[in-house]
Design goal:
The protein has 111 residues and is mostly helical. The protein has one domain. It is 69% helix and 0% strand. It starts with a helix and ends in a 7-residue tail after the last helix.
Amino acid sequence: MTRLAALRALKNRIDDLLRDLDPESRGVFLRHASRYLHPSRPTFRSLYSDYQAEIDWLNFKRDMNEDWPLEKLSQRTFRNTIHCQDPYMVHAARHGEKSASAMYRPSSARG
């Protein structure tokens, strides 16, 4: 299986997982995962730590109200979801479009 095919298969599995996730838990996850695209370039570790803390806090409040706890995604799933995004777009968001173009788009000046 090629790398592209493997990434597509992974993206499909993650899409299925997120579709089945509780809407509130999915919203928390998407909010924290999308922060990866910020120019301040936060790390996976810091984003996942913030995500875990928010889910833990929400589950604490839900436990007091005797509600079911929210599902917490694994760090691996969190990381894989971000890795499934278009590398050019991720690089452009974190490092700037000029840097992304130089790294991912062929240039007629090269060669």
